[in-house]
Amino acid sequence: AGVGDASASPTNALLLSILQESTGRIATILFADRLGTALEPECKMYRLAADVFNDAAMVLDCLSPALPRGPRVLLLSSSSVLRALCGVTAGSSKASLSAHFAKWGNLGELNAVRGIVLYSSQETVISLLGMLAGSVVVSYVSSPSATWCCLILLLSIHLAMNRAAVRAVRMRSLNRQRANLVFSTFLDQNKVLTPKEVSLQERIFERDGVLRWRGSGAFAAAKIGLPLWHLLASLAPAHEMTGSIRDRAAKVMRLASLYRDEEFLVWYNAPQRLGHITLKEGAGAKSQLKAWTLLLWIAHRHRTADATSAGFEPKLDLHRTALEELTSRWLECLDRMETAGWDLGTASLETTPGSRVRLQAEADG
Q1: Of residues 91, 92, 85, 94, the one with CA closest to residue 29
Q2: 264 three-class SS
């Protein structure tokens, strides 16, 4: 704890260790609370992010001896935070990837047998090889510039190899990005991409909630699992000057009537290029996929039709037409996707804690 400072006392070293430990634990709690829901759907992204966090922490540790005491404490605390984030993301993404590889439901066997025996053996062999290679390299590296060159080179190789490993994983569940790729291709070309084809096209780091048409540039954004008031505010926003709301009840009834046979409500705000999906109570994974596909289809048609300034009725007609067209092809789409190897029973679209709504008027008839 006193590396780089010959005058550091045991008390200062102890306080520094307590500070690092505390900041790391606080970061773990905050990160898990803020992004815990997103770790499973975006396990590939967070698995590579864990390596980035760990390597960044290593660089900060190496920089710390060259700084004065104040900045050094801040730097070491930052490295502790990064290592804590690495632990959360690596552990959670490992669990999701283990579930992905347990194709026959043998997750316990996979973790117990392969996780303990195979992983421990690999870790031992790699550690031995690393020590042997380090013993050879350290005899040739003596200057600070050579040390930094070797560090940057090895960290670059480490990240490149992990990126290749993550990209090689062919996830069968549909998160937001994979749903964009699969459903836009189906709607545009009547073709269902396989998990292998999607893994070659998807980005590892993707902005949350963006809508893309067949991998093109982001043209809109979407949110799923929102409370009903979010959708209502987008459907009938309040007047900027008076704060009054015009015909909100009538518009809500029209929208609820449109989706009376669905387990969701969808509305696309064309001027803001933002879509809202509110899920009804009991909405399953396939209903969530249909809602996301419908919103993607509506947003794309708004873009091509340039209907951003249209009134409520033309927008509602566009929603109705898109829903009818999608419903007529939906069962065929699901059958072909299951044949292609996609897992349609896992809901992976929500990256934040979502809510559900119960429309009592529907039950009353």
Answers
A1: 85
A2: strand
Q: What pTM did the predictor assign?
A: 0.82
- Cα separations in angstroms, 342 against 5, 95, 173: 56, 20, 6
DSSP label at residue 116: I
What phi, psi does 192 have (nearest 5°)?
-105, 115
Q: What is the Cα–Cα distance from 38 to 31, expressed in whole angstroms? A: 11
Q: Return the structure tokens found at 161.
A: 């190899």
Q: 198-224: b or e for each residue (b if 16 or more CB lie within 10 Å)?
A: bbeebeeebebbbbbbeeeeeebebbb
Check pLDDT > 70 for residue 188. Answer: yes
Alpha helices in the chain (DSSP H): 10-35, 43-63, 69-101, 107-109, 119-138, 144-168, 176-189, 195-201, 228-235, 248-258, 285-305, 312-340, 360-363
Contacts of residue 284, Cβ cutoff 8 Å, sequence gap at least 6 = 263, 347
Among all chains, which residue has been given the structure tokens 């044949």? 339
**Residue 302 in tokens:** 């708004």
d(CA 35, CA 26): 14
What is the per-residue burial (b if ≥16 Cβ within 10 Å, else e) of 337-360? beebebebebbbbbbbebeebebe
Amino acid at 182: V
Amino acid identity, position 265: L
Query: Does the pLDDT of residue 110 top 70, yes or no?
Result: no
CA angle in degrees (0–180, nearest 5) for 354-31-91: 95
User: If we measure between CA atoms, which residue out of 16, 29, 54, 34 comes closest to residue 162?
Assistant: 54
pLDDT, tens digit (0-9, with 9 covering 90-100), for 251-310: 888 888 999 999 999 999 988 899 999 999 989 999 999 999 999 999 999 887 655 556
- Kindly state the percentage of the chain with pLDDT values over 90: 42
Res 5 pLDDT > 70: no
The secondary structure of 213-236, three-state, reads CCCCCCCEEEEECCCHHHHHHHHC
Within 10 A of 226 (CB to CB), how many other CB atoms are there?
Answer: 21
DSSP β-ladder status, 220-224 and 210-211: antiparallel
